[in-house]
Amino acid sequence: MALKPTTCKEAIARWEKSKEESAADAKVIELQFQWPPIEKMDGALSTLVSCEKLSLSSNMIDKIAGIAGMRSLKILSLGRNYIKTLAGIETVADTLEELWISYNPIDKLKGVGALKNLRVLYMANNMVKEWVEFNRLQECPALRDLVFTGNPLCENQPDVDTWRTQASNRLQQILKLDGIPILRESE
């Protein structure tokens, strides 16, 4: 008999029981590694109105949803899931500063431009293949720290220096690429 996936509501209830506090008042909520895994982000997450950092990494989530009410969210960790697009992220665009979404099958960055306050984007080991998608990150003026290694676009460059030069020329705003500071010629 297959196990039913854990719902967000159940995961939040487990978290409250283990922490002995109200999730609605908590600033950091960690729901990673649920067993059985969470498959759907749902409206239960919108009850987390004080949450500044939410971790849902290492589950089986296939799309971003249910976070519209998370008006304090600054850091969203969704690494190691099955997320294919950034659709749904725009509902937290006003507050989100860091998106950790490595190890997902994302190949398009449509919608990333809504994240005007995004400073940190960790999206290593996704499926982005084309510069046209990478260039959408130009729409994120606050972006300073980008991890993109392990994407086909990065891996298909002749060498690391070519990758770093191409990426930093396209994204003038970033200060750090793949964990290494970018050295620019001073004007």
Notes on the structure:
- With 187 residues, this protein is an alpha/beta fold.
- Helix content is 17%, strand content 12%.
- The chain is built from four helices and eight strands, in the order H-E-E-E-E-E-H-E-H-H-E-E.
- It has helices spanning 8-19, 131-134, 152-155, 160-170; strands at 28-30, 53-55, 75-77, 98-100, 120-122, 145-147, 176-177, 180-181.
- Strands 1-2-3-4-5-6-7-8 form an eight-stranded mixed sheet, covered by helices on one side.
- Strand 7 (176-177) and strand 8 form a beta hairpin.
- The longest helix has 12 residues, at 8-19.
- The radius of gyration is 17 Å and the shape is globular.
- The termini are far apart.
- The model has no long low-confidence stretch (mean pLDDT 96).
List keywords for this structure.
187 residues, alpha/beta, globular, single chain, 17% helix
